[in-house]
Write a structure and sequence with these properties.
There is one protein chain. 36% of the residues lie in helices and 22% in strands. The strands form six sheets. A six-stranded mixed sheet has the order 4-3-2-1-5-6, with helices on both faces. By secondary structure, it is α+β, with helices and mostly antiparallel strands. The longest helix has 21 residues, at 151-171. Strand 15 (337-340) and strand 16 (344-347) form a beta hairpin. The chain has ten helices and 18 strands. The protein has helices at 11-27, 39-45, 75-82, 96-107, 121-131, 139-147, 151-171, 181-196, 256-273, 280-293; strands spanning 32-36, 57-61, 67-71, 87-90, 112-115, 134-137, 202-207, 227-234, 236-237, 240-241, 244-250, 305-307, 314-318, 331-334, 337-340, 344-347, 350-355, 358-361. The chain has two domains: 11-145, Creatine Amidinohydrolase, Chain A, domain 1 (3-Layer(aba) Sandwich); 148-361, Creatine Amidinohydrolase. Helix 9 packs antiparallel against helix 10.
Length: 370
């Protein structure tokens, strides 16, 4: 039986993230960073929630301890989920933007501020008006930090890849003629969620000629004999995403094995070339050149891969325009594909960890079990 290890985030993990960020703030002469609810709030403060019209922000000063500003009625929720006791509240009759400016002033925090790129523009404007901050985007700084995974994060990604891959594989025996893509997606999502412990699971299920649409959404198309079944699905563990694509024949679709082997060998060639200091553009070219040599270059229509972490798509992107070398701790997908319009498409996607000695699969998905 497949089991997935689910671990609580250690307090030291969060403290290390703060320390890492603060050293970068000092180096960039930035006094603090402001982070709204969202994926980066989860990364730095553990609380997973979506932003609302009532402002909640985390503030990480370059030297002092982080604190949170939130509506007064949310205080207990924020304390419980983040573990922080330095919670500043604002009342419904107050301006959270003026409250933030006052808090910066009272604590002696300067006005050179980085903001999370997910902070709504209207809120940036209101903060700037209230406190006359010198505001710049923290996009590059945040995603550079998040792109290098800690040992704890790698374990979460391994569990997510395992739950995603195993969930897809567990669903395959339930395929039957006449079921729709949408019906089968529910089966796959259930199988993944049982393993990950998360009700969140995404998926692209494509039957027959629909598999030739690289990111086609599940439809009412029914499964027929001798069709290709493409399953691009994932489920998170502790917020960290899995993203696996398995493509199989249902029956004996014409030319499936020939095209499948080309895509598989392109995937392996890229995996074997992947390592620290590899240029993403060159890694993309490894798989693309192999497929082109086999005569199907025009049918590989997307980048080779993308970074993986708290978001399904994040830095680093394995694309022809990316010249920034990979570093140890990067996690990304390798997903070459061949898509023949009106016939079928095949994609093989693995989740990998970059090390100085090469790439490692976060989970080894069986690729020839059909």
């Amino acid at each position: 039986m497949i089991t997935v290890e689910i671990m609580d985030i250690p307090k030291q993990e969060i403290i290390d993230r703060w320390s890492n960020l603060q050293s970068k703030l000092v180096a960039n002469n930035i006094d603090a960073m402001i982070i709204p609810l969202g994926v980066n709030f989860l990364y730095y403060f553990k609380k997973e929630d979506k932003p609302s019209e009532r402002l909640t922000i985390g503030v990480i000063p370059k030297e002092d301890k982080p604190f949170i500003i939130t509506p007064s009625f949310e205080k207990s929720n924020v304390e419980r989920s983040t573990g922080l006791d330095d919670i500043v509240v604002w009342e419904e009759t107050e301006s959270p933007y003026k409250k933030t400016a006052k808090e910066f002033n009272d604590r002696g925090i300067g006005n050179n501020v980085f903001v999370d790129p997910h902070l709504w523009f209207v809120e940036v404007e209101k903060l700037n008006k209230a406190g006359k901050f010198n505001i710049a985007s923290a996009h590059e700084l945040i995603y550079e930090q998040r792109s290098i995974k800690s040992e704890w994060e790698i374990k979460q990604l391994q569990s997510a890849a395992k739950a995603s891959s195993s969930g897809i594989l567990n669903a395959i025996p339930q395929l039957k003629v006449g079921m729709t893509e949408k019906e089968y997606l529910k089966i796959v999502q259930t199988e993944m969620s049982v393993l990950s412990g998360s009700s969140l699971a995404f998926g692209l299920i494509q039957f027959g000629e629909n598999s030739a649409i690289p990111h086609g959404m599940p439809s009412e198309k029914k499964l027929q004999n001798d069709s290709v079944v493409l399953m691009d699905c994932g489920t998170p563990v502790n917020g960290y995403q899995g993203d696996i694509t398995i493509t199989i024949p249902f029956g004996k679709p014409t030319d499936f094995e020939k095209i499948y082997e080309i895509v598989f060998e392109a995937n392996r060639a890229a995996f074997d070339s992947d390592k620290e200091e590899m240029i993403p553009a060159e890694l993309d070219a490894v798989a693309r050149n192999y497929i082109t040599k086999k005569g199907y270059g025009d049918y590989f229509t997307h980048r080779l891969g993308h970074g993986l972490g708290l978001e399904v798509h994040e830095t680093p992107y394995i694309v022809a325009t990316n010249k920034t070398p990979l570093v140890s701790g990067n996690c990304h997908t390798i997903e070459p594909g061949i898509y023949r319009p009106g016939k079928f498409g095949i994609r093989i996607e693995d989740d990998v960890l970059v090390t100085k000695n090469g790439a490692k699969l976060l989970f080894e998905t069986p690729r020839h079990n059909f």
